[in-house]
């Protein structure tokens, strides 16, 4: 089915099923190949990349809609999900579908509730749905141009992550169960958008007493196998409750 | 006009003018008589108190709607305003108007965008509109029972304030230009929901180097006139950008 036909067919159903004017956009972060990555996709008739999103059923809690949208796209519910901001400017979304008929669902004014998600990379199986021509992880550096105000939504998500780094279990949800100190540092550098001094970072993170050094080390590299750590969940949670002190 | 007639008259206009299903609720804080206060009101047909709110015009940015609603209620635009969360559970609002006809605007499912506002007390002139029977400031301690999920909205606003205390100009916007150290401490205690040690608080806040001690002191009390301070706006803003370090 060509994309125009698909939109027209789906529009009738969408007007029936979803709350008009309201959408959800998801900024899904993951840590992969030593860099902080975000899930982006391309709609079939669009040149620009965008964030995955969806709509809220008339019979559904907004938070449940976000979980559903995320599951449809990533194949898992096992993801830390948090609402961070609602984007409500006039003309933020209308233009992207201007070549279509006014009755098309997607051509409305949408006010979009932003959720960020933290996905442990191995849990996710990306799903390319019938509306998209591409879906992929992309390093948060050198992102391609985004459609609508999706760049603004991404930026706000990253700023929120930065502000919440000392109060929310962000590292815990992005890293695999066992990780090395350089990986943890890379993650913090990605979120903070700056390079950190290795010695200072190690000293600080160890001083928090939230990590457990494991008996094993990572196999396989050419160099000396690096030590592996995991979060001491109990200590980590109680430290976050108080807030990790200090700047990075 | 009785309240039912008023709702019916306004409903026709509201369906025309506003985006359905979407509302705004405002948690307006102020610092007054040595305590952190919040603006609450009572709708004419309701027994419980609630937060001031309103709707978004079809031709209006969401943020502009929040500014308009706040101005209508407080008589001023000169208020620090920030969106903090969107509340979207099913049945969060519908029950409050169940005795009215289904076509009444207020009886819809509403998804409500929460804004918190920080109002310098002397700037505000409370406005009692035709829908309300009472509007007042109330200390955040011992709040009365709220309608709908307004208590949850208030709690989330206060938690947000707490998390943002080190990064946002919260003190600056709640206090008058000149204030005493005990007033600043009371404000912090209100936001943090706990008593602070006087000596530690003074030492910490002075160490940030964000206050200017004024040449004058407060007149009129029975005791020794307390010193007055104001924020050094430049230093304060640059300290907030980095984030005030440490816990209270």
Automatic annotation (TrEMBL), chains A, B:
It comes from the Bacteria. Gene3D superfamilies: Nucleoside Triphosphate Pyrophosphohydrolase, Winged helix-like DNA-binding domain superfamily/Winged helix DNA-binding domain. The keyword Hydrolase applies. The keyword Zinc-finger does not apply. Keywords: Hydrolase. InterPro entries: NUDIX_hydrolase-like_dom_sf, NUDIX_hydrolase_dom, WH-like_DNA-bd_sf, WH_DNA-bd_sf, WHD_NrtR. This is NUDIX hydrolase. It comes from Flavobacterium endoglycinae.
């Amino acid at each position: 089915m060509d994309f125009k036909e698909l939109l027209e067919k789906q529009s009738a159903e969408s007007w029936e099923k979803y709350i008009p004017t309201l959408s959800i956009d998801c900024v899904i972060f993951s840590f992969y190949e030593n860099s902080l990555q975000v899930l982006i996709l391309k709609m079939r008739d669009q040149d620009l990349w965008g964030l995955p999103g969806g709509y809220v059923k008339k019979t559904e809690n907004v938070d449940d809609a976000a979980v559903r949208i995320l599951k449809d796209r990533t194949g898992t519910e096992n993801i830390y999900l948090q609402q961070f901001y609602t984007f409500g400017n006039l003309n933020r979304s209308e233009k992207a579908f201007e070549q279509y008929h006014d009755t098309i669902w997607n051509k409305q004014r949408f006010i979009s509730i932003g959720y960020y998600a933290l996905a442990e990379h191995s849990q996710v199986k990306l799903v390319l749905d019938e509306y998209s021509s591409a879906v992929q992880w992309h390093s948060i550096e050198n992102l391609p141009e985004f459609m609508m105000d999706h760049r603004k939504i991404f930026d706000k998500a990253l700023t929120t992550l930065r502000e919440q780094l000392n109060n929310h279990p962000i590292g815990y949800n992005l890293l695999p169960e066992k990780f090395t100190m350089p990986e943890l540092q890379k993650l913090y550098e990605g979120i903070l958008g700056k390079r950190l001094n290795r010695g200072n970072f190690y000293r600080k993170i160890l001083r928090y007493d939230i990590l457990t050094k494991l008996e094993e080390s990572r196999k396989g590299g050419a160099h000396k196998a690096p030590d592996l750590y995991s979060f001491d969940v109990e200590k980590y949670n109680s430290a976050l409750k108080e807030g990790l002190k200090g700047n990075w």
